[in-house]
Amino acid sequence: MELLRTTEEDLARAARALREGKLVAIPTETVYGLGADAFNESAVARVFEVKARPTFDPLIVHIARISDLKKVAREIPVFAQKLAEKLWPGPLTMIVPKRPEVPDLVTAGLPTVAVRLPGNAIARRIIELADTAVAAPSANPFGYISPTTARHVVSMLGDRVDMVVDGGPCDVGVESTVIDLTGPVPVVMRPGGMAVETIESVIGPVTISRKPAGPVVSPGQTLSHYAPRTPLYLFDADSLPRSAMARGIERPSAALVFDLIRARELEAWHAFDEVIPLAPSGTLREAASRLFSILHELDAATYAALYAERVPDEGLGRAINDRLFRASKKEG
Ligand code: TXA
Ligand code: MG
Fold first, then answer.
1. Which domains, from first to last, does the chain contain?
2. Strands 24-26 and 33-37
3. Closest CA to 230 of 251, 246, 244, 248
């Protein structure tokens, strides 16, 4: 595995490696992606292998400019065009009808493809130089916490990837919002870095998918995902430590709460060995950007259990609560 920086020469090497069918981990504004040339089936097959990801879970295809949407989409729905013009580049993935040239492996045999124009300029430059579309899931083993630094990628995947481009910590910190635009009503399949409120300001009301009926449609929807190895228990806002005490607090343990005010309140209980505010400044943006890093750190520490409280369920808070829920132990 080669660790690259972000000089133009480095980015050109990363692009060349993608052209040669290699796997290159790239920084995006959401999380680090494990990139492969989307039109190279054997490279894409290695992505599934390296992540131990089931092949029924389709990948997101990344492009460098809006005009490249037509290279992967058979048809561009009106809402997709509007959203692309207003909200790309950014943490928004759109599901649109796919062109036959996109390998079935990328889309898990679905007639649709998920496409994203990342907000991170390094990612865009690499894709542009590679002159292709790049299939990239988050660069973590399937089901584990997503990476928001190059170090996370190196420690989780190491020599199983060919290159890692170190673009520093990710800005947004949670994955893109995935929206399906192939039906009569837009459906948000996964809450993420683009607030639903922002999307609705462009195209009007959307539906938020709860759980897929039948087989998993968008396995960001699988119940256990983004999970640390240390058990994490999730509670409603302002219900720690009472609810946690009711079920018994394992020691040593750490608690994860929204802001500094709440952290101070909780510390007074002396119920946990460590209390961590997701957002010292009190913004959901900061909470999102720190979420996965904090989970990586807590999982590397020697806690017997982690306890977390939900954050306000609006804007980026929806994505944070979704990831915390999937990271958590479900009882019953
Ligand atoms: O922010 C992100 O989206 C990051 C960065 C690297 O771009 N990528 C990412 O990829 O989170 P991944 O593979 O971890 O999640 C992709 C999600 C999955 O939940 C997958 O099921 C869904 O997108 N998806 C992909 N193609 C789909 C399709 N055609 N229909 C429905 N869901 C799809
Ligand atoms: Mg993922």
1. 2-208 (3.90.870.10), 232-327 (3.40.50.11030)
2. antiparallel
3. 251
DSSP assignments along 229-276, one per residue: SS-EEEE-TT-TTHHHHHH---SSEEEEEEEHHHHHHHHTTT-SSEEE
In sequence order, what E strands does 53-186 have?
60-62, 92-97, 112-116, 134-135, 163-165, 177-180
User: Which residues of 86-231 form beta strands (DSSP E)?
Assistant: 92-97, 112-116, 134-135, 163-165, 177-180, 187-190, 207-208
Strand 187-190, strand 177-180: pairing: antiparallel
Distance 127 CA to ligand 1 centre (A): 18
For residue 53, give the ligand 1 atom closest to its CA.
13
Query: What radius of gyration do the chain's Cα atoms show?
Result: 20
Q: Look up the pTM and report it.
A: 0.95
Whether ligand 1 lies within 6 angstroms of the CB of 59 is answered as yes
Helix, strand, coil percent values for the chain (each to nearest 5) = 35, 20, 45
- For residue 193, give both structure tokens: 């870095």
Give me the average pLDDT of each 10-residue run along the chain (332 residues). Answer: 98 98 98 98 98 95 98 98 98 98 97 98 98 98 96 98 98 98 96 98 95 48 78 95 93 98 96 97 98 97 97 97 94 60
* Atom 21 of ligand 1: nearest residue by CA position: 218
Q: Is 181:77 a contact under the CB 8 Å cutoff?
A: yes
**Count of beta carbons in the 10 Å neighbourhood of residue 2:** 15
